[in-house]
Amino acid sequence: QTLAEIDRVNQSGDLNVFVVGATNRPDLIDDSFTRPGRFDKMIYLGVIKDTEEKINLLNTLTRKYVLNFHWRNEFDFIDQRIPNNLTGADYQNLVNKVYNHVVEERIKQLEMEHEGLDKTEWNAKLTDRDWFGNDDCVLTISLKHFENVLRRFKPSVSAADIEKYESLRDKYCA
């Protein structure tokens, strides 16, 4: 049915329609899908290995957070600590985990600072400054937070998977 609809749109000539599909298993796509006029162009989106591209992505993903460092000044950290087999989703997951780590760290600090105060009273008794630990009322992410999370962080794609995907790229995107 899908192929018939694609062919029908292509034959009418009245519309400019682009149909986009995505898969991580191009080897399983039936040849009838990849003939000219259907899904006839394959594009491989691999992992980011270039430090400059990693910096751009990390800047984008952390733009709404307060960092006490600048990614542009952390080439060594990025080269040595950020794995080369992270997908875009892995980078987003990493940033989310780092922020959660910062929140958990702040909660532990609050528990120590207000040990005698029942947690049900926190909202009534604590000010915004108490909650955040500063007058700006923001949680600040440091490189140390990234280091802590990266110690336990597991990429979703292994090096062997990347090799397999790159061989598929070489076969289908040539």
Describe the model.
It is a single chain. It contains 8 helices and 2 strands, in the order H-H-E-H-H-H-H-E-H-H. It has 174 residues and is mostly helical. The chain has a two-stranded parallel sheet with strand order 1-2. It starts with a helix and ends with a helix.
What's the short story on this structure?
With 174 residues, the protein is mostly helical. The protein is built from eight helices and two strands, in the order ααβααααβαα.
By DSSP (H or I, 4+ residues per run), the number of helices equals 8
Give me the count of strands: 2
Structural class: mainly alpha
Distance between the termini: 28 Å
Order of helices and strands: HHEHHHHEHH
Question: Strand-residue fraction?
Answer: under 5%
Specify the biggest β-sheet. Answer: 2 strands, parallel
Walk across the major sheet and give the strand order. 1-2
Overall 3D form: elongated
Helicity, as a percent range: 40-55%
The whole-angstrom Rg is 24 Å
Low-confidence stretches: none
What's the rounded overall pLDDT mean?
A: 89
What topology emerges from the helices and strands here?
Layout: H1 2-12, H2 51-61, E1 66-67, H3 75-81, H4 88-113, H5 122-125, H6 128-132, E2 140-141, H7 143-152, H8 159-172
Parallel strand pairs: 1-2
Keywords, separated by commas or semicolons:
mainly alpha; 2% strand
